[in-house]
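Figure 6 in text form: structure in, sequence out.
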């Protein structure tokens, strides 16, 4: 059980503005939708996707690094790496298996004979949106194991969008629809408390010393 008295104590080290900001942001966070990127080459693309997840309230980001392994570009992510949960995988298969165990359907964002246009997407199901490599797109592994296919309709000469742009368009649409619905998409109380502890730890200096001092006074 989390120590709620400790949580209250730790929050006294936050400014009122930061504490209120945490409350407002957490109230809009969701795990109903999540995102996975598969072996994206360009570092700034993965970082930009993470930033979009933070902006649109997606709490978890899954990164498959079967061929490419890089660190997050902090300048592009603009601090988003502090506020979203990053989960890394060595293989696409492991990532998909983990997501399916958690009840997510796998949504391949790629044109397909069975695809669905974004405006018609069913938001009621827990979904992970997979975005692939800049040139090749998603692997055959993802396509074979996908439960659904999603496309952004395009009417110009250009037939594709940058991965970070695609992610932003998809997330803006589905999260806006989600918040208009009656679906219970919010984080659980337990998840909110866990994130409050996590964000406080990433915000205040001497976190461990403060916790040690609190426990010595109990």
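Output sequence:
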């Amino acid at each position: 059980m989390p120590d709620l008295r400790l949580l209250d104590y730790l929050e006294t080290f936050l400014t009122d503005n930061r504490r209120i900001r945490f409350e407002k942001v957490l109230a809009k966070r969701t795990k109903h939708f999540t995102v996975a990127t598969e072996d994206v080459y360009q570092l700034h693309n993965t970082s930009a996707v993470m930033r979009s997840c933070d902006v649109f309230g997606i709490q978890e980001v899954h990164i498959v690094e079967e061929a490419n392994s890089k660190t997050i570009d902090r300048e592009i992510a603009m601090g988003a790496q502090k506020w979203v949960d990053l989960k890394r995988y060595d293989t696409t298969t492991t990532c998909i298996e983990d997501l399916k165990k958690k009840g997510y359907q796998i949504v391949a964002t790629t044109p397909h004979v069975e695809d669905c246009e974004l405006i018609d997407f069913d938001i009621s199901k827990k979904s992970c949106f997979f975005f692939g490599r800049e040139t090749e797109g998603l692997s055959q592994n993802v396509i074979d194991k996908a439960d659904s296919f999603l496309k952004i309709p395009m009417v110009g000469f250009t037939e594709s969008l940058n991965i970070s742009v695609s992610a932003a368009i998809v997330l803006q649409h589905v999260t806006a629809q989600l918040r208009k619905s009656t679906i219970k998409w919010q984080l659980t109380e337990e998840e909110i408390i866990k994130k409050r502890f996590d964000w406080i730890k990433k915000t205040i200096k001497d976190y461990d010393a403060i916790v040690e001092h609190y426990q010595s006074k109990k």
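Caption detail: Residues 34 and 128 are 5 Å apart (CA to CA).
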